[in-house]
Amino acid sequence: MDQLEEVTALCRAELSRIERKYSRYLDGSIVSEINRCAGSGNFVALDSETARLLDYAKTVFDQSDGLFDITSGVLRQAWNFKSNQLPTDDALRELCKRVGWKRVEFQGSSLHLPVAGMEIDFGGFGKEYAADRVAGLCRGAGITAGLIDLGGDVCILGAHPDGSAWQVGIRNPRDPERAMAVLPLSRGALATSGDYERFMEIDGERYCHLLDPRTGWPIRGLAGVSVVAEQCLVAGTATTVAMLKGTQGPRWLKKLGLPYLWVDAERKTGGSLWPKNAPNPGA
What we know:
283 residues, alpha+beta, T-fold, 2 domains, six-stranded antiparallel β-sheet, three-stranded antiparallel β-sheet, 7 helices, globular
C-alpha cells in the first residue's frame, strides 16, 4: 500500500468514526444516547471531543442570537419536503416546546435534556467538522497540495503543484447544476448554504429546510451564502447563521469579517468574494 492509499484509508476510517459517534440515525452514537435520555433525569457523560463540539455550538448559539440551535432538529418532524403539504401552526407550536439550547442542563462534564422528546442534532456542523479532521490527517501525512470536498464543504490543503489556485464553483441557487461564480482558492476552507438543498414550492412560495427555531417556519430572504475561513467548521456555521438571519444576513457577515458572498431571493448579489465580472445568477 502506497502513501496515498494509506492516507485515504485513514481518512475513510475517520469519517466512519465521526458518523458512528455523532449520527442521530445510529442507535450507538452519543447523540442518540443523549436523546434517548431526554426527560429521564439521567445525565450522559461527555468525552472531551463531544464537550468541545457542544461548547462550540453554544458559542455559535450566542453569536447568532439563538438562531443556530442544535436542539431545533425536532422541527423536521413537521416538515416533509416531498409532500407539498404545510404543517399546521398547532403542530409547530407543540414541537417548539421541545426546542431551546438554554434549557439544556449540564452537571460537570455530563449533559441532560430536561424535556421528553427533546433532541440535539449535530447535522448543522458535523460534516464540516469531519472535513477539518480529514484535512488535518492529510496535512499530518505531509500532503501539501490537494482539495477535500465533502458534498460542497471544501478544504484546500494547498495550491496545485504548479502553484496555481483551485477553481471552486459556487452553485446558482436557482439552477444548482450551474455555477454562479468561480473562486480561486489556494488555502483555507469554503462552505455554502442555500434554500435549494431541500425545499418545496406551494403557490409560488418556497419553503426550505432551514427553519427558524423560534417559530418552526422556514427562513426567507437569502437564497445562498458562501463563506471562506481557515476552518470548514467556522465557514459552515457562518453560512448557516447568515441564512437564518435572512435579510440581515449580509450585514451580519460584513461585521463577522470573513470573506463571503450572497445571493438573495430576488437574485441580487453582494459580498467581498463576489467576482466583479460574474454574471447575475438570474441571467
